[in-house]
Design brief:
Elements (H helix, E strand, L loop, with lengths): L1 E7 L4 H14 L4 E7 L4 H11 L4 E4 L4 E3 L4 H9 L3 E8 L4 E4 L11 E2 L6 E3 H7 L9 H11 L4 E11 L12 H21 L7
Parallel strand pairs: 1-2, 1-3, 5-9
Antiparallel strand pairs: 3-8, 4-9, 5-6, 7-9
């Protein structure tokens, strides 16, 4: 079973309902949906949802993502082969947003640095957790931890989403640019500390 964790906040109800409907319609595996409401940022919401999850696999998503039909099949295949999957993401106009790299079409199974929509087994999550308590660069942290634990990230083109880029709350209490700079600094400092051995691989 896949545990699907969806953070959402007040003011994004239309996006959330579209997201929820798409997961219910387009997921082919057994699944549970865990909704985390009104956390200060994505990282704390994902951590809280993961604590409640009962599935064999964990999918950490966002309320303005719309999964495409059978999105889960290539993601499960990647994990079964010892990888973590990176999705192909289109924007609401149907233009490429990312495919392992931003704005670049990559071949299926191509190695890439990170996944913008995390999906992992329970075993992988137990080695990676917790997510940093930030809004952006949470996905970078998960992919970096996964690589460090022996699970590189690869493109799975059928692990596909449309990103509707909801604007309400996008900076999580800051402007978008302020939040991006702040969270990147937190992420890079956490990586430096881990590489120095200042923090353990398991919290």
């Amino acid at each position: 079973m896949i545990s699907i964790v969806i953070p959402t906040i007040r003011g994004r109800e239309e996006h959330f309902e579209r997201c929820l409907t798409a997961y219910r319609t387009n997921t082919t595996s057994e699944f549970e949906i865990i909704v985390e409401r009104d956390h200060p940022a994505v990282g704390p919401a994902w951590n809280a949802g993961a604590e409640r999850a009962t599935g064999d696999f964990l999918h950490l998503t966002a309320d303005d993502l719309e999964p495409q039909l059978a999105w889960d099949v290539p993601a499960l295949e990647a994990v079964s082969r010892g990888f973590m999957p990176a999705p192909r993401v289109l924007n609401q106009l149907g233009k490429l947003d990312s495919c392992g790299l931003h704005g670049v079409e990559m071949e299926d199974w191509a190695p890439v640095p990170m996944s913008v929509v995390p999906f992992m087994s329970r075993l992988q999550w137990d080695a990676i957790r917790p997510v940093l308590p930030i809004h952006y660069f949470t996905d970078n942290w998960i992919s970096w931890r996964g690589e460090r634990a022996g699970w590189p990230t690869v493109v799975r083109r059928g692990f596909a989403f449309t990103h509707h880029w909801a604007q309400h709350g996008r900076g999580a209490g800051m402007t978008y640019d302020e939040r991006m700079r702040h969270d990147q600094d937190v992420f890079l400092e956490a990586v430096r500390e881990a590489e120095r051995g200042a923090v353990p691989d398991r919290d």
